[in-house]
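Q: Please design a sequence for this.
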């Protein structure tokens, strides 16, 4: 398998773990959402970008973006429906620097 291409994200998330309040963290199963999956959901669902535009921001192809956002949405749905903690970590990402 070839190495993953570096994905460029805007910033790190403020919180790295979201858990249900009904159970302590040590009694809840956990799902890991990578930083690029988090950024893909932010661009597609929060910012409302089209996949081609969001892919350009991450500096990846549109089909790759589609796979990433689909994986992220499945993980988030699993966490919400099955009452699991969602941890945001990992992935081959670098933070973009703002141009002045």
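A: Design:
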């Amino acid at each position: 398998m070839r190495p993953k291409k570096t994905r460029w994200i805007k910033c790190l998330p403020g919180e790295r773990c979201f858990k249900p309040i009904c159970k302590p963290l040590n009694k809840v199963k956990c799902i890991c959402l990578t930083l690029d999956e988090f950024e893909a959901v932010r661009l597609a669902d929060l910012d409302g970008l089209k996949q081609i535009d969001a892919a350009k921001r991450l500096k990846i192809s549109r089909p790759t973006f589609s796979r990433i956002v689909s994986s992220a949405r499945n993980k988030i749905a699993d966490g919400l429906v099955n009452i699991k903690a969602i941890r945001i970590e990992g992935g081959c990402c670098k933070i973009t620097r703002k141009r002045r």
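Q: Thanks. Anything notable?
A: The mean pLDDT is 85. Residues 1 and 92 are 15 Å apart (CA to CA).
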